[in-house]
Write a structure and sequence with these properties.
Family: Belongs to the FPF1 family.
Order of helices and strands: EEHEEHEEEHE
Helix content: 10-25%
Strand order of the largest sheet: 4-3-8
Protein name: Flowering-promoting factor 1-like protein 1
InterPro entries: FPF1
Number of helices: 3
Distance between the termini: 28 Å
Largest sheet: 3 strands, antiparallel
Radius of gyration: 15 Å
Length: 112
Amino acid sequence: MSGVWVFKNGVVRLVDGADAIGGGRHGSGGRRKVLVHTASNEIITSYAVLDHKLSSLGWERYYDDPDLLQFHKRSTVHLISLPRDFNKFKSMHMYDIVVKNKNNFEVRDMMM
């Protein structure tokens, strides 16, 4: 796990590099990270779109935890766990998907 420790309002927390530099999902200079499905060059804009793409790659949805969206691929030990609220979908979640789906997704900087 990598990141930066940030002290704010009397609380210390670990944030990923983009959050530490730009103060949030949008990063510095008006940029934000987006997850892109490489075959279609489509930006993932919702969990419905992501669910469709992952399903086509053999991922199955788990419904065990009401606070998370979880996907499992039977042929692997991999589990993708995402926050239920898409607004809390951060770059660390995007990179987790990229690592577990080589050549199918990539994370890009998008200018705002």
